[in-house]
Specification:
It is built from 14 helices and ten strands. The chain is an alpha/beta fold. It comes from Variovorax guangxiensis.
Length: 330
């Protein structure tokens, strides 16, 4: 073989090896996502979780030229959609919009639940947090939560509070408040928020623990009086309403719902980091903040590690609250 042919063969071999060699990990990460991402929403279209998921999905699609497909899988308080998500491949293309109800609370409520949030999911990005609000009729004698505590101590078991149903966070927050204040009040469960709101306005129940969106319209209309929000800080949506900590002796009372994105366990770390950075960038934009505020929630960018710690802490915290409430669901 001539020297010229040998050099040509060597050059071709080097070129072929370069073309056929596997793509470096950094290049693979840069190419992600190379196909549509499915975002499971474990509730029906039109609810708060669904709206937040679609805000995030639309922004990721528009800003990054990704394709994010929202797939509603409702049922059993969100546990059906979560159960499907944990069975999906951990390839970075399957996500679920989880929340406190179905990840921190549901494992202690439902018998035989098929997932463990601390083991079966990877925390990706916290999207928003939202306090609950305690409301009473506009003509109620209660002006503050301190009034409620005083009345309950004077006449135990005469005060009632409504919620959208047994086992909901709203129900359990009522139980948490009762235990913290050392009072006896009775829970009245309803099949959804609307009938509970109606009975609160009419005085059939003394007060109601509600999500902010469910009560906002009637508060603005002057038919409901907002006594307090359940978070440590006041809500942007209800800035004039005090916290429970402000209006009572319960200075450590702090309960909020949260909503965030998860992938199945052992999802690729580089893909988790990519989605987290993209979501956090959108949450910092004024127009996205306004969209989330309109839902009674507040954007809270967070690292995957910090979000995972939040989920773990809330999961442990709610075990005792559920046990104290006596609530159990099949």
């Amino acid at each position: 073989m001539t020297r010229k042919k040998l050099l040509s063969l060597l050059a071709f071999s080097v070129l072929s090896a370069t073309v056929l060699a596997p793509m470096p990990a950094a290049a693979q990460a840069a190419a992600y996502p190379a196909k549509p991402i499915r975002m499971i929403v474990p509730f029906p279209p039109g609810g708060g979780t669904d709206i937040l998921a679609r805000i995030v999905g639309q922004r990721l699609t528009e800003a990054n030229k990704w394709t994010v497909v929202v797939d509603n899988k409702p049922g059993a308080g969100g546990t059906i959609g979560i159960s499907e998500a944990v069975r999906m491949p951990a390839n970075g293309y399957e996500m679920v919009m989880g929340q406190k109800d179905n990840l921190a609370v549901a494992p202690w409520l439902y018998k035989g639940l098929s997932y463990d949030p601390s083991k079966d999911l990877t925390a990706v990005a916290l999207v928003a947090e939202s306090p609950l609000v305690i409301v009473t009729a506009a003509n109620s004698p209660f002006k503050t939560m301190a009034d409620v505590i005083a009345a309950a101590k004077a006449a135990p078991d005469t005060i009632t509070y409504g919620s959208p149903g047994n086992g909901t966070t709203t129900h359990l927050v009522g139980e948490m408040f009762k235990l913290a204040a050392g009072i006896k009040i009775s829970h009245v469960p309803y099949k959804g928020s609307n009938p509970a709101v109606i009975d609160t306005i009419s005085g059939q129940v003394s007060m109601m623990v509600s999500s902010i969106p469910s009560a906002m319209a009637q508060v603005k209309a002057g038919k409901l009086r907002a006594l307090a929000v359940t978070s440590a800080k006041r809500s942007v949506s209800l800035p004039d309403v005090p916290t429970i900590a402000e209006s009572t002796v319960l200075k450590d009372f702090d309960v909020s719902s949260w909503y965030g994105l998860f992938m199945p366990a052992n999802a690729p770390k580089d893909m988790v980091a990519t989605v987290n950075a993209a979501v956090n960038k959108q949450l910092a934009l004024p127009e996205v903040k306004e969209s989330i505020y309109a839902q009674g929630a507040e954007p809270h960018p967070m690292t995957p590690e910090a979000f995972a710690a939040l989920v773990k802490a809330d999961h442990a915290k709610w075990k005792g609250i559920v046990a104290a409430s006596g609530a159990k669901l099949e």
